[in-house]
Amino acid sequence: MNYSGRDTAPKMIHWLTKFNDHLTAEVSCEHLKEIDVENNEFTLAYFGDQTSSLYKKTFERYALTEERVEYVSLSREEASHCAHEFGIEGHDDGIVFFRNFDKENFLYVEDHDDPKKVPVYDQLKNFVNPLLLPAYFEWIGDEDQEFQHYSLIFDTPQSALFLIGADLNADYMKVYEESAMENKGKIPFTYGEALPKSFLFR
What is the pTM of this model? Predict the structure, then answer.
């Protein structure tokens, strides 16, 4: 597997640790609520039996293919204390996706009645991948600094739409935002008063 992330020491060490030591880290409910996402904006958490097919053939397999995400797991006993807080019913195993930039979490639900019979692994991939894209945001930061989601857009690489010289009170901003929602999961819509220098030198 080749590293394709940022060429900074913390990022490279983080990647090497994940793919050469422990693919997933076992955590507690308390730790999950205060999860350290300094090196990643995204976390995928598995709740339940780590010998199950869902864990071995779906969760771990996805973890081997997507390096932008941090992977953690909770044992069935530990999950019983907090899984319900994230929408997981009863004693079922479950997978929840967390995003740091908007503090949201999303419960993955397997579609047992899918007429196309899409494999569970592909269902998980199709569920997570659109969530890696923020739909609509303002780039923030000093002109000499990398703006928010810079890594997400430029290191993937990821297409993005930039609105330069945005007037937040203008009528067109509502149309721009509506377009962003219509294209959610396909391309991020971003806006700001002026482009940061870090963008101009790409």
Answer: 0.69
